[in-house]
Amino acid sequence: MKTNIKVLIFLGILILGLGLSLFFSYRSSQVPDNPDSATGNTAGNLNNGGLFCEDEGVVFFSNTYDSGCLYSMNADETDMKKLSTSTVSSINAAGNHLYYFMDSGSGGTGLGYIIRTFGIYRSGKDGENTTCLLKDGCITMQLVGNHLYYQRYNNKDFTNVYKIKTDKSENVPVADFLFNPVAAHNGTIYYNGQDRDHYLYALDTATDESRVVYEGNLWYPAYHEGYIYFMDVSGNYRLCRYHLTDQYVEVLTDDRVDTFNVGTSYIYYQKNDPDAPGIWRMRLDGSGAELVAEGIYRNINLTSRYAYFQAFGDDVTIYHTPVEGVVNVTEFTPALAAAMEETGK
What we know:
4 helices; mainly beta; four-stranded antiparallel sheet; single chain; seven-stranded antiparallel sheet
């Protein structure tokens, strides 16, 4: 009799343990809803590869010193941690999760590198509980609310814009034309036309319907505090901004611009000049322009503390300078040291 009671108690504890395990496993797999206004990263960062993304004081970045693997750090570049073993880009963050495009074929180490994995992935902010949302090509993507709007490509279809829900329950086309979905604010995606014109459009993500905002000739729009910053195609790709409320355009520089990123106080941009190319920065109204670094650079990403960029033709070395205050360009040695510690090189 006592033996039977012990068996029943054991079975009861076992069933309870299994039940709790299943419950917590289910809870961990759930993706809480984000506010409809949630945005995963800035347009400037995503137009420059989405290699850095700051959320709640933590910066998530693609460490090119370690084959582009996902790392995290504080905004002051302390407390670095490695979160993945494969190359990541188009990093987005909101709530408890990260979203990014991962491709082990572009670099990385371990089994995930030997057996190629690629696609749109979701993970916790600690890099755990990684889930593949879509095994397909992705040029760039932006999180808006509970959907990832992304440019999808594969070997069968032309590139189109789709949206996939963060819990993987929905994956549908957004439009029958191509556009860049990264300039998002408060549930609206601003984009320039690419087929019939280069006007500025606004897509309401509640309905996925678009309207014309400004009949200009622009490229790479980026929203910041009531303005759309853009490259003026008709004006030799000079940098301008359009005031959404008062509906007027300001020319910020007559320099030809290859790429740019809008921060809290400064715009960082690559000046296209055959004789004197370089990264420059200026105030948001175009004043106070100053040289940051001579040469040709790309992948300009901004956080609250630093501006990061890479030299053209060098896929490994990262340079940085304080995003505010005095310019002081140095190599991003904390990322290099963390990579050397991880890889033993």
